[in-house]
Amino acid sequence: MTKIAFIFPGQGSQSVGMGAELFNSGGNFLERADEVLQFGLSRLITEGPQEELTLTYNAQPALLTVGAMIASRLVEEGITPDYTAGHSLGEYTALVASGVLSFEDGVSVVHKRGLFMNDAVPAGEGAMAAILGLDGEKLQEVTDSITAKGDAVQPANLNCPGQIVISGTKAGVEKACVELKEAGAKRAIPLDVSGPFHSSLMKPAAERLKNALDEVGMKDASIPVVANVNAKTVSDHEEIKQLLVEQLYSPVRWEDSVRELINLGVTHFIECGPGKVLSGLVKKIDRSVTVLPVYDEESLQAVIDAAKGWE
């Protein structure tokens, strides 16, 4: 029996023009986002520039807007998820798809989240990098050593076997990249993000985020969400709120989240958003599941056609 999970990408997936074809026939998501934020997010999404779109307080509402629109299009076609999950920022898009947050509240909260994160560590002072081909124990040992010497850096995204993202101060991440390659990592790739997400440096932003979430009308999930922090399903809105606060400074347990979804019987993962980053990660975690990214009209139609054969 087919069980479907909608999964939503996080920061780093943004690109100018993302979702352009789908927006033309996908309701008024751009207009609604502009109205909520009182600035031209739609212009940034469609025209850029990329540098401005990548700033965390722009990238977060932009990615949520694209992901929520794609999920809405799929549901209109009769393709509904049994579970949702999102990577970092993508968890908020999952919460919109699961009915916990309205689209408008989601856009507003993640814009504030981005501002809080930027204030905690201004753009350029923090960094993240993907470390390939090194086990988690050795990585933890190296990052702990660098942090103890005064340059904070720690594991941030536990993505898939052989890929862990580190996060921290610019100096800490740069030193870690050098030392981790010396310790046997195959590659260390700087990420196109504007801050040290999911690190202890984000704790000042977490309290402000809690206050912002307290002002939002959250509901219990109509579709269970697998949370980043503990890789478990959650539906209660108060528990979700607490996990979102913790998520800001805790590692994203993406590999564990995908394995949990598979344990729950998910056979088909549909990535809703620009690019195919999560699709690639899911395939590295378990090649037996079906993974389908939706990012334009052609890929949407491919999923619609494929779904006709699902039981």
Protein described:
By secondary structure, the protein is an alpha/beta fold. α5 (56-76) packs parallel to α6 (90-97), α8 crosses α9 and α10 runs antiparallel to α11 (237-247). It is built from 14 helices and ten strands. The mean pLDDT is 95. The strands form two sheets. It has a six-stranded mixed β-sheet with strand order 8-7-2-1-9-10, sandwiched between helices. A four-stranded antiparallel β-sheet has the order 4-5-3-6. The relative contact order is 0.17. α13 links the parallel β9 (268-272) and β10 (290-294). It folds into two domains: 4-120 and 201-307, Malonyl-Coenzyme A Acyl Carrier Protein, domain 2 (3-Layer(aba) Sandwich), CATH 3.40.366; 126-193, Malonyl-CoA ACP transacylase, ACP-binding (Alpha-Beta Plaits).
Q: What attributes does this structure have?
A:
Alpha-Beta Plaits, 311 residues, 6-stranded mixed β-sheet, alpha/beta, 4-stranded antiparallel β-sheet, Malonyl-Coenzyme A Acyl Carrier Protein, domain 2
Q: Quick one: overall form?
A: globular
Would you report the number of β strands?
10
Main β sheet profile: 6 strands, mixed
Which strand-content bin applies to the residues? 15-25%
Provide the CATH superfamily of the largest domain: Malonyl-Coenzyme A Acyl Carrier Protein, domain 2
Task: Give the strand line-up of the largest sheet.
Answer: 8-7-2-1-9-10
Unreliable spans: none
How many domains make up the 3D coordinates?
A: 2
CATH topology of the largest domain: Malonyl-Coenzyme A Acyl Carrier Protein, domain 2
What is the count of helical runs? Answer: 14
CATH class of the largest domain: Alpha Beta
How large is the radius of gyration?
A: 18 Å
Structural class: alpha/beta
Q: In CATH terms, what is the architecture of the largest domain?
A: 3-Layer(aba) Sandwich
Distance between the termini: 6 Å
Sketch the topology as an H/E string, one letter per element.
EHHHHHEHHEHEEHEHEEHHEHEH
